[in-house]
Structure formats: C-alpha cells, structure tokens
Structures
1.
Amino acid sequence: MQYSWDFQTVWRHADVLLDGVVGTLALTASALALALPLGFVLAAMRMAPLRILSVPAVLYIDLFRTSPALVLVVWFYFAFPILIGVNMDAYAAALLAIGLQSGAYMAEVFRGGMQSIGKGQWEAARAIGLGTTDTVRFVILPQAVRRMVPVFMIRFAELIKATTLAATIAYGETVYRASELSAQTYRPLEVFTTVAGIFFVIIFGIGQVANWLERRYLPEKAAAR
Amino acid sequence: MTYHWNFSSIVQYRQLLYQGLLGTLQLGSASLASALLIGIVIGLLRTSQPLAGRLIGGIYVGFFRNIPFLVQLFWFFYAIPVITGVQAKPFFAAWISLSLYGSAYFGEIYRAGIQSVEKGQWEAARAIGLGYMGIMRDVVLPQAIRRMIPPLTTQAIELVKLTTVASTIAYFELLYSAKLVSDQELRPLEAYTAVAVILISLLLVLSFIAARVERRLQAAQ
C-alpha cells in the first residue's frame, strides 16, 4: 500500500507543537529544580553514619526507583489529591511524580560520585587536620563532581524522556499537543514522526555534550571506551 | 481531613486486577525474550569488523535510545495500520516497540561485555586457529557473560516497568485495570494504590531474584 506523506499540514500547525515543547521544557526545568536539591539531601542522608538518617533515605530511594514512572504520574494525579484533600492540576502532579523519582536517581549519582573517591583521600585529609565539612568541600567534591557530570547528563536526558508521560494526565507537553494535533488533522504518522525528530535532536544533543564533558574531564575513562 | 480507606471495591473487582497482572506478565516476557534476541544481533554488529556493520548498529542504538518510549509506542501504533492495512492490536504495537527499544539497550550491554574481554584473548584464540564463531563461543562469551548479567538484569527490570506505558494505547495490563476498577466504584485512591503495591512487589521480587543470581555467579568465580 502506498502512503502519501503530508508534512505540510504539520508545518502549518507548528505553533501547536512549539507550545508543547515549551510545556516539556517548563516541566523538565521545574522537575530538575526539585530533583537536584532533593537528590543531594538524600545522598547525604544515605551516607550518614546515623541509621535514623540512612534507613529512610535507602527506603525512599529504593521505593521511587522501583516504581514505574507512569504509575507514579497517574498515582499523584488521581490518588494523591484525595489522600491529602487538596486539588492538584496536571502540572503539579507531573512535577511531583517525575521530580520525586528523579531525586532518587540523582541521589545515586551523587553517592556514586562521592564513593568513587578512594578512602586514602579521606584519610589524607584527616591526617592534615581537615574536618568532615572541609574534607568534602575541598578534597572530595572537586574530584567527585568531575565524575558525576557525565552520569548526571544521562539522568537529565532520561528526565526529559519521562516528562512525556505527563501527556497521559493531559498536561500540555509535546506528546499531548501532538495527540491533539493528530486528532485534528488526521495525520498522526506525520505528527509523531516530527515529534520523534524533535526529541531526537534534543536528547542526542545532550548525549553529545555528555561525551564531550567526559572527554574533557575524564580523559582516562573516555580513552578506555 | 482523614480519608476513610475502603478496599472493598478492590476485592470485588480482583478478577480485573488478576487479568491485568496476566497482561503485564505476558507483554513483559514476550518483549524481554525478543529484545534480548534482537540485542544480540545489535551487539555483534556494534563489535563487528566491517565499518558498515558498526555504523548500522550505531544508528540503530542512537535512534531508539534518543526518542522517548511513549513517542515510539504512538508512532508504531499509528504506523502499523499504514504499513499492514489493518488496525494495530494494542499488544502487537506494544510488543514491537518494547522489543526494539529494549534491544537497543541490551545491544549496548552485549557490546560492552564483548569489548571488556582483552584484545590478547582474541589474538591468542586466532593464533591457535579459531574462527570468529569459535572465538566467540569458546573464548569471548564465557568470559563476557558473567560481566553482562548484572546490567542485563537491571535493564530487564526497566523493560518490565515500561510495560505500564502500554496502558496508554488501551493494552489491558495492570495500570489499565486500575483505571477500570477506579471507574467502577469511583475509588481511584484505593485502585491506583493497590496496583502500585502489586507492581512494586512484582518488581521487588524480580530484583531479589536478580540479586541472588548475581551473588551465585560471583561465588562461582
């Protein structure tokens, strides 16, 4: 069967998709703003010697990493507002679901980076009289951040992919706008091909930046690949 | 405000949840099997000698990993009727897209595993007269597989998590059954919480099995 492609229709409604991209970026940025500090706190708690801090952090991280992202999105939209008795729009529900889950992933990025620094560094810092805070600030973090950045970029790309799930609760991001557009134009194949192209450009671009950062900051690891 | 939980609707419609669980298991196992198999082809292409092979493998992996799964699912859902002329069954569209998406990730794990075997092993095997198949089967894979198992199990669990996305094209799996149950009695909190608990328990069992397999492999080394 011969299918005649018609991208003209999509192009005429480019503003709809552009509106969706803005929605995707807004959700990504706010989820990131929630996930980064949350991940930092969770990682610090998890590495703390006190069990009263580390056990809740481990439970939180395991729970959110095990849950399918779409289940979280749907749960925070349909179930959570009833539980706390507050009305919540699609944006707030998606932000909570995706941000809280991403926080769990970010915590593991931070922890992985910190623990990749050899014990000798801690011992040496203590030997020259640095306290825990100073050791982390001047010795561990400067080395750990270089190793975290490429992994962080991968998590960032995964976060953007996860925001598409907000389409299922009618938040106006790219995939939701694309569904509207394809219902309106009867051109789903062209619309979703375009959307796939948009995401490919963004996420592939992030991957290239990650590779570049890895080559720049971790030449020994990049060469081993 | 304190909410009065009422799980009677869940008990009443447990048959729906049971069917949903079956749907999740069916789609999960079918996609896992085909993704693991297609992944082998991709992994071999990525590590092959000819540039064309590596290029095709690279484009395949780059394509499927850099587009959100939901977009791929919708794309296949709409493209299958155009290609075949018949309306796509939700299972079929979900199975195809999960297999292709998963195989790109599995392919990269196979590639990393194969490349983790030192060059000297290849050279030594070639020196004693083994061909490509012989080297792979007798020298490289036995060493590589142990290193592949932990990332493979992690990725397999990610694939099972992704089966929930198939609910968006009305494939009857657990999340979709939650929607059905919550529509029956208008008790979304109980329905979605119950399904979340079932899914998380299923995934915890899977990761527990995975951890045991890994420990046994490490002990064997």
2.
Amino acid sequence: MAEAAILEVSGLRKEFGELVAVDDVSFSLAESGSLAIVGESGSGKTTTARMIVGLERPTAGTVVSCGRDRSQPARSTKERRRRGREVQIVFQDPYTSLDPRQSADEAVDEVVKLHQDLPAEQRRARVQELTELVGLDTREARALPRELSGGQRQRVAIARALAAMPRVLILDEAVAALDVSIQAQVLNLLADIRDQTGVSYVLISHDLAVVRQLTDDTLVMHKGRVVERGPTAQILDDPQVDYTKQLRASVPRPGWKPPARAGRTTGER
Amino acid sequence: MATPAPLLEVEGLSVRLEVEGVRRPVLRDVSLSLDRGEALGLVGESGSGKSMTARAIDRLLPAGAEVTGTVRFEGTDVGALSGTALRRYRGRVAMVFQDPRAHVNPVRRIGDFMTEALRMNQGISVRDAERRAVEMLGEVGIANGARRLRQYPHELSGGLLQRVMIATALLTEPALLLADEPTTALDVTTQADVMAILDALRREFDLALVFITHDLDLAAAVCDRTAVMYAGQIVEIHASSRLHDDPLHPYTAALAAARPDITRTARRLQAIAGRPLSSFEAPADECAFAPRCGYAQTACRERLPELVRLNGGVSRCVRAHELRSMLGRARG
C-alpha cells in the first residue's frame, strides 16, 4: 500500500435489498495515480464510484480521502464542500449533467464561487484558466450546452469538476460516448491535466484500450467482487483470471474473429 | 457465364432534409454495391451519414426527405416501390437497430412482436408463425423459445433482446440485413456473442450484411469490405483486411491512429484536430476533411474530390496516389 494514499477504500459493500451490488471492495490510490475499474454492466463498478463520491451510502466499509472518512453523510454544508474539494465525478452523458440554461463559463463560475472565495476579477481569470485548460475557445465558453457538441460538453463537465480543485477525479465512462477523434483529444487533455495539477483519476470503463492509455493500475470487477488487480499493462497483456481473459478476448482488433463462447444456448436471462 | 448482377446497388444517392427550416444535405453522392452473402462495414463518426444511408436503402427516411440517385435491389428500383411491393421489399431487406428497447412495444409480448410481420404481411397462422419464431430463436442461441415468446421485453437483458431482434429480422427470410450499431449498447463479451451469431447466420443463410459502426476494428473484423464515411460522403471503400496497413484515405488512417491501442500505451494519442463535420455543414466544392487533414494542400480546397480507384478500393482524395505508401506507415 502506498503511504501517500489520497484515496483509501476498504471493505466497501452495498446491498440493494437482496442484491449485493458491491462486495468487499478495497483499494488505495496514490497522489497523481490512476486506477481503472473495469467490468461489465452489473459488475458494481458504477455503484462503487457513487459510494466514493457520496451519492450512495455504503452498507459496510469505509472510504477515506485525504485522510478523512467520507463513508457517512456530511453533517454540515462546510463539510460537504470540503468533500467536494477532495473528490469530483464526471459522468458518461454530458447532455444530462449540465444545466441547459447555463453557458459553459457560467457553469464553471458557479463551482468556482462555491469553493473559492475570490474577488470578481480573479474569479473571472480562474474561470478563463479552467475553460482554456480543457481547450474551449472564448466563443465556446459563452455557448449554451445545446450549442456545443458532445465532446465540447464533456470538456465543460471536466472543467466544472476541476473548478473544485479536487484531489481525485472519478471518470465514470466519461469518454465512452465520444467520437473517436474527439475521444483522443479528451484523453490527451486528461493526461495533460494530471501532469499540471497532480490530480488522481479513478476511471470507470468497459473500454480496455482507453484503460490502457490512461491508467497505471486496474481492478477487474465481476458480480460485485474484485476478481483481479494489478498494473494495467500486466492485466491486459497477461490476464490470470478466466473472466479477465474472456474480457480481453472479446475486444475486436485486426484479424479478430468473434470467439464462440460455451453455454450460449443455456437459458440465461 | 456472365457476372451476376449485385444484390444491392446504390448509385449517386443524395438526400436532403429540412433542418430548422432550411433544406440541408445529409447524404452526398453515395455509391456502393453489395453481392449476395457479402458483408460491408459502414464506418464513420457522428453526422457522417452512415445511419442515413441504411435508412435510405430501406426507404425509412423522414417525411419530406428529398432523394436523388437510385437504390436498386435485385435489379428493381427501390424508389418506385409502394404498397404491397414496398412491404415485401422490407421483408427482404431487414433492419436491426442500436437500442432494441426503443424498437419494441414494451407492453406486447415477445411472441406478438416476433410473429407480427408473418401474420400481417404473409398471412401465416399464429401457430405456424410461432413455430418458426421458436426455431429462429434457436438459431440465435436462445433455448426455451416457447417460453420466451410469452415474456415481455423488460424480462430480457439487452443482449438477449438484441438476439430476439436479429431472429425477428431473419424470420421474413431477408437477403440483406442492415444492422445499425447493433452491439454498441452491449457489454463487450455480449457483443462478441452477438457478432459470432451474426457471422454464423450470415454464412448459413447466405445473407448479405451492411454493418454500421463507429468502431473501425469491429467492422474490419467481421466485414469483407469496409466503407468509411465522412460528412455525408463515402471517402474510402477497401477490403477490410487492408484497411489498417494500407488505408487509402487520410481520414481512415487518422481514425485508426486516433484510437487508443489495447496492446500499448502511447505517449500521446494522435488526435485529429477539430471536430467531425456533419454533412450539412460540409462545403459543397472542396474536400470536407481538408481542414483537419495533415496532408491537405491547395488542390484539396479547389474542388470536391472524386472517388479514385486504387489497389482494389476507392478513395475520395486528390492526393490518394502520392500519399498511399505514407498513410499506412503514418500509423504510430
């Protein structure tokens, strides 16, 4: 375990009635580190992310960011804002996570205002710095969400998350819906931001090529449990567990033929 | 013996749609042909026109669409079909969509949905139609077909429902399946299953396939040839096996290079500057990709490039010949 862990998750569990969505998930993330959580729908990866941010309350286990526990609901506004400065999340769909009546710079400004007590001029400069960091030009920064493309909207969502100056940014399928040429721009941008700010990433993704590009370490989740973990390169080049091998073999690549899987004709749901 | 006519021939297909009160092009001079049993990938980013092409082929364009050019299926002009003939055509050319849940009635049982076309258009009895539906469910790997027919869509997972959609599409014994991102919403292992099933069925039923996807690797893996679209035009058609090592158009090469590689971490991805252009934003008299293209020259902005034949494929690039050896190497 790294000593300077910025995020420490241990024994995390979430039950929804009878269903155990997340079962005993533990990991630690170092400053400037990047961890991927991969798995398919129902694997519990998004529920894990939501518990880390505080959108779901764990049934058991703890989440500690910057040395402070955040597994229980915040008891004051001050505490909630402090947590917001520690961990932020960007969702897959930039269409539903932005206020349609708020321009890009207003959306960013709102978060800056909340987290930093700055005089008007410095605040404007900070908003401009953030929109420039994510590669929005001045016209785009003044545009409403509907006037922006999906990639531009996702950059607004990233700028907004960064406005809180978080130590950890959770990217929940944040590049999945983007066109390939835009996805490459956003992935490069995320790498630059990490170099510049030292932010740590938790990437929730089903896309193993994106995982390879952005993360150092990987957790593979299946049915709520971590089935394999290790350095990303090692997990993808030499998977040990059958489930990881199957995931890896399902990724199309030149010369790939869809592997026929046993048990396809069973009465699965 | 004379060469048999292609199953599907699309020639100079252009479509314009009214967007915010103005008629705008969505497809620009699309031509392609498909033989019986052949699989063609149709790859492109948002707004490239790939879905519109499939809709135009199946005569499913929105009302008020202005269409020029021709679509011929088994030698018949599809644009001239109406009534019974059009319904019969849609049985021969079936379509599967990205989101199966958006294309079924959630309060009707799977059986109703699957047998509707057979009962309504072909006058087949409920019992016979259901028997055929159960058989076809078996073909796509779904056991207990009779039980499935009594279930509602919400009782099935996305992957299972998509297999139901494929089985339904095949019930009318089509010669051509238009599959529009049929696996995009599915998990990667489920995608592999569905692709394996499509691949097997295609061979078994001598079914031609137009497979629409944003995933160049997926298209290349399952299709004989791949057409790459940009801004409402086809910019390249090439054998899928050559697409990666011998791309004929700079956009194809750029698309392949921009995608992260699962086998290695790039220091930086070779992103394509700017954003994909929709067909209705594209200039009418110059190369639509030129503003984002690393190889663009003055000539690219002087006229609309024609499709040129090259190494068994076609490319809509004025510099296609001179760039050829460079594009394949450009991929990092």
